[in-house]
Known about the structure:
- The structure holds two protein chains of two kinds.
- Chain A contains 22 helices and no strands.
- Chain A has a domain at 1-268.
- Chain A is mostly helical.
- The longest helix of chain B has 16 residues, at 166-181.
- Chain B has helices at 46-53, 75-79, 97-108, 113-122, 136-148, 166-181, 193-199, 217-222, 264-274, 286-301; strands at 8-17, 20-30, 35-39, 61-66, 82-85, 154-158, 185-189, 202-207, 210-215, 225-232, 245-251, 254-260, 276-282.
- By secondary structure, chain B is α/β, with parallel strands linked by helices.
- Chain B has a six-stranded mixed beta sheet with strand order 5-6-7-3-8-9, with helices on both faces.
- Chain B has ten helices and 13 strands.
- In chain B, a hairpin with a 2-residue loop joins strand 11 (245-251) and strand 12.
Amino acid sequence: MTALAGTGQLVRLALRRDRFVLPPWLLVLGLLPAGVANAYEQLYPTEAMREPLTATVGANPALAVLLGPAFDLSTPGGFTAWRLLGFHAVVVALMVIFTVTRHTRAEEETARYELLASGVIGRYAPLTAAVLVSVGAVTLGGAFAVSLLLAAGLPVAGSVAYGAALAAAGWTFTGVAAIAAQLVPFARTSNGIATGVLGAAFLLRGLGDASGEVGWLSWLSPVGWAQQLRPFAGERWWVLALSAVVAVGTLGVGYVLLGRRDAGAGILAERIGRTHAAPSLRSPLALAWRLHRGSLIGWSIGVAISGAAFGAIALGIGDLIGDNPTMREIFMRMGGSEVVIDAFLAQIAGMFGMIVAFYGVQAALRARGEEVVTRLEPVLATSVTRLRFVTSHLVFALVGSAVVLLAAGLGAGVAHGLRAGDVAGNAGAMLGAALVQLPAIWLVVGVAVVLYGFAPRRTSAAWGIAAGFVLLALFGPVLNLDPALVDVSPFSHVPRLPSADVAVAPLVWLTALAAVLFAAGLAAFRRRDIG
Amino acid sequence: MDDTTPAIAVTGLTKSFGRTRALDGLDLTVTRGEIHGFLGPNGSGKTTTIRMLLGLLKADGGTARLLGGDPWTDVASLHRRLAYVPGDVNLWPNLSGGEVIDLLGRLRGGLDARRRDDLIERFDLDPRKKGRTYSKGNRQKVAIIAALSSNVDLLLLDEPTAGLDPLMEATFQTAIQEDRAQGRTVLLSSHILAEVEALCDRVSIIRNGKTVETGTLDELRHLTRTSITAELAGPADGLATLADVHDVKVDGNTVRFDVETAALDEALKHLTSVGVRSLVSQPPTLEELFLRHYTEETARANGKARRP
């Protein structure tokens, strides 16, 4: 098998390079489910408290859109699977996407691959090594989660199903990433394509889970399959076969595409460019626009479509609740179906806030990316000052985030408004609900800027901190954490429009804190060495 | 600031990265209008020096003046008057070469459009290709054209021709000579000795972050040995015992030896005392000159100086 020659060595190289990357992912992933299961015992100690959960909390479509279908919330395992599994599968998918890209396309993009390829390395060896590392990591991570769930005293079948659901999501997205890595010559774009597929998968199951009308949509999503395996709620093992088939199929496509292209090239062809620069390409901001526009436009379109999809099902949510007597009673007491729809829309706005924070981090760290690949030096060797350079990128982190949020709000508001018969009112309300997320996003971007100024080699920690804030806000309460700790996350302070009123104070101090972080980070950047 | 201040005046520059001492009291003076060769083994501190002159790195100690200004604080005003070619050029993947040339020129404050088009033709560059699709040599050409087509006083070139073929190397040398005729100052870091010999008025050799030699090539040659082959009237006894005479080989009445420039007079007197029939004297080649400086560093780093 000369096509696979050297795979073993590449696997060892990948493991060596990832020795500080994969273990933290796996550790957090393994600890979370057991943590939620333990917290469940404390939050709902008695049978009387557990029994009605499925019919009340579980039937709330505003939660279903984010978390997934509730099958049985009366046991710690069933509750954990509902509360965590969908999100957990997304994180696992992100891990494998980044892992596969890092060891395939990113290596080719830098010239490192050629150094390796000139040795005794088969054509399919790098992809095979990346797939082995990725599949191995998720399988190990799944097994780790299983062992901790068992240690927490949960049933064997459910624990194994939970771990298997995670691993299966990882296998599927390993295949997706393997295809994406062949399509385009840039690691950033292949990551973007694969995470776009993941976003679509999350969107499909959110729509399917929150609305009875289009429940079948959940079955188009690998994230949905993880939940439909029903760990701790009458496991349906055959669902695993779906993931396995798709994983094998996507991997096969990846290998075929790899066999048909040149090293370093993509499947999609390069276009020829301009002889002279357009007159407008004459400032750092114009350059930044060229570098950011693809990502900004892609994100805006993506969230606008997602927002519209969620907005379109919002009206049906009230009807869905109408079928459930207990829920109907609760919501009538709270103020009727209007309240449910507003809560659902607030949940959507909050979800977009957290997602767009990652766009903000990505846009801010682009400035560091330019520095790492030594494209910054020629720019700073012109009369462009450091401050002008960095602010031209940060504009996209700050204003770009607002644009993406507005696209999401507009999509959701218009789609909901069309069905509810009040486009202007609903669009306005959703734009407001989207915009109040901005100060929290700016704060997350501020953390990235501080790292950029003071610890440029550690800027990727910004991703971890952003993810930590999201985890705290989403799972802090259900993990029964100290409220003071949950409050560390800026997302815990965002007013939940349109179901709650605007609280100005947190918006002001979040913005002020973000401004302080920006000032400190930029001051440090002006003084540090470049490189 | 008048034209008599040096274009670059660096004294006692120091810089450490963690425990590594990159620059250890470096001195460098480049006068206006000259092409100054900047030589030294890999890792000797050439790129670090240029990056400090560009204000990308902050000095730990020593002083650096560039065109009469401070490279760390007067960034924007100084950079309008200089252009830089990095040793490893990385272009934006979604910008064409032509766009990069125009952009960098505009960011500096304007470029000479005729010179740009002329250079693109002479360097045989397709400016429509996107950054990623260029070979190393073509990426290098983009950076060279961007730098040479701007109206600046000073060019900082860090191994600019590392990826160029011999034809393009010749084009580069012609273009630099045109710049010299325009009165521009050039600091040229290079390992290509023929290029240095063809272009440079003066050179500085550094190793381990310190300047070890500065001067014109002729001056540097004087610091080193001359090879002598002589046919004598009789045996040249005692030649090997003279100070600063090395590698003496005797073949009948013919002797071959190397001698330090300072001891040349003494050695020739010894030969004429025996009687000289024929004499061939060879000045050291540039290669020998540099190899001597470079290998001494390796020897020193290994803790055993080759010569006392």
